[in-house]
Amino acid sequence: MQLHYDINKNQLLVLLDGEIDHHSSNQIRTEIDTAIYAHMPRTLIFDFQNVTFMDSSGIGLIMGRHKILRNLDSEIIIKQPSPQIARILRLSSMDRLAEIQINYPEEVIS
Amino acid sequence: MKFTNEFKCVFPAVSANEALARASLSAFLIPADPTAQELADLRTVISEAVTNAIVHGYRNSSGEVSICLRMLPDRVLYIRVSDKGCGIPDIQKAMEPLYTSVPEEERAGLGFAIMQEFTDNLHVRSTPNHGTTLTMRRKLGQIYAEE
Ligand SMILES: Nc1ncnc2c1ncn2[C@@H]1O[C@H](COP(=O)(O)OP(=O)(O)OP(=O)(O)O)[C@@H](O)[C@H]1O
Ligand SMILES: [Mg+2]
Known about the structure:
The complex is a heterodimer of chains A (110) and B (147).
Chain A: E1 2-6, E2 11-20, H1 22-39, E3 43-54, H2 56-71, E4 75-79, H3 83-91, E5 99-101
Parallel strand pairs in A: 2-3, 3-4, 4-5
Antiparallel strand pairs in A: 1-2
Chain B: E1 5-12, H1 17-29, H2 36-57, E2 64-72, E3 76-83, H3 91-94, H4 111-117, E4 121-127, E5 131-139
Antiparallel strand pairs in B: 1-2, 2-3, 3-5, 4-5
Helix pairs in contact in B: 1-2, 2-4
């Protein structure tokens, strides 16, 4: 997992990779929270483009960060979830807590 | 129960084995040529069931999780996940979307809702202090409403 902070825009970008489950979410949570309290971002961006799996433990992770960010008057953006993860986000009504940005590259017709 | 193939395994209830359970499901299912969505749905389902056994079933103890996968006639996948943990006192309440017995741990309470959404049927049998068994079925090759 990579964390980038863009000072100009007050954005904390978290580039997640691999699988988000109960096992991996504890470590991810600790790292993100350390960065949140260090930078106090206006916007927390989760970049999901390299996330290959997420279950309800990932939903809990997003809900928990949303609670922290709301107290800082800040917001969450979720970028580029896979179709499966987008389904789980929708099923969990995560679009009410975060802006979900999906733009799939145009299909290449060969 | 008639089946064309079966896979059983037992492993200690530690979180590293959640990925092992998903990998086992994939390896079992791939010869049946599932669609990408079927595979993704069923990996999510087994992950939810095994995580519940580890997180809730063995909350105050340690033990083992058992998995049984079967390919039934007409491409129906059968999944059974069981633990010998604390059991569920009120199954109906446990299955309500957003209900979690441990909100302080940032759990969403969506595991059962996701398992129900991604299978054709889900059955829960649980006895307090003895454990919980989930059985689920999903027929491959169905058209699932997307969006
Ligand atoms: N194997 C089990 N043994 C004991 N209790 C269980 C078991 N599985 C589920 N439960 C109970 O059912 C409740 C609901 O389970 P569910 O998976 O829907 O939500 P959760 O695990 O609390 O949260 P999430 O799955 O979103 O992380 C749990 O909070 C727990 O109390
Ligand atoms: Mg659960």
